[in-house]
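Same chain as my last thread, 52 residues:
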Amino acid sequence: MEVPLWLALLVVGALGIRLIRPPWWLVAVILLGGFLLADSLLAPVIDHVISK
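reply #2:
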């Protein structure tokens, strides 16, 4: 099952906001950072580590 990246980020962000209640700017930085990291040169390395 493949989930689009934007949907996974939206779900994780919504759960994080409901459970931890961090400041909005921190949520935006984490989500944007995750989105940018997924499209970077480190993406294959992260995918290899996660898929093990």
